């Protein structure tokens, strides 16, 4: 193995990526839970999970040290963006939702550092009347 063949990747990245994949495989597909990894955005400080049932999608984010008025939430029906700032850091996390949602139906609460956002699921298809 010469200098050109050196692998500069962090060996722990592969381990954590595999653990995250296994958790999502174990929990995500069967019970509608998705655990967001810490690849970017808020990093280790924030944990975001999604859960869904037949009618709604629930997103819960742990935002330690963030004040309510420093949070900005946006959704385009498929991706939820949560941005926040503290005195020390600015955060932005983009979360791909498990299904399409009606972004206009969203309700959000923030209490004790926990952000909860609830969406109604969007109809995946529309009825077409035949004349």
UniProtKB/TrEMBL annotation:
Protein name: Hsp20/alpha crystallin family protein
Superkingdom: Archaea
Source lineage: Archaea, Methanobacteriati, Methanobacteriota, Stenosarchaea group, Halobacteria
InterPro entries per record: A-crystallin/Hsp20_dom, HSP20-like_chaperone
Gene3D superfamilies per record: 2.60.40.790
Family label: Belongs to the small heat shock protein (HSP20) family.
Domain SHSP: 37-131
């Amino acid at each position: 193995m010469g200098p050109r063949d050196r692998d500069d990747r962090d060996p722990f990245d592969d381990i954590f990526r595999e653990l995250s994949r296994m958790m999502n495989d174990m929990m995500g597909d069967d019970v509608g839970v998705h655990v967001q990894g810490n690849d970017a955005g808020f990093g280790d400080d924030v944990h975001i999970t999604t859960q869904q049932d037949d009618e709604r999608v629930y997103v819960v984010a742990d935002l330690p040290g963030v004040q309510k008025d420093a949070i900005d939430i946006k959704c385009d029906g498929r991706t939820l963006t949560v941005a926040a700032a503290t005195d020390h850091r600015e955060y932005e996390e983009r979360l791909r939702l498990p299904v399409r949602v009606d972004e206009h139906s969203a309700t959000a609460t923030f209490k004790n550092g926990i952000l909860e956002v609830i969406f109604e699921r969007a109809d995946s298809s529309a009825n077409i009347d035949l004349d």
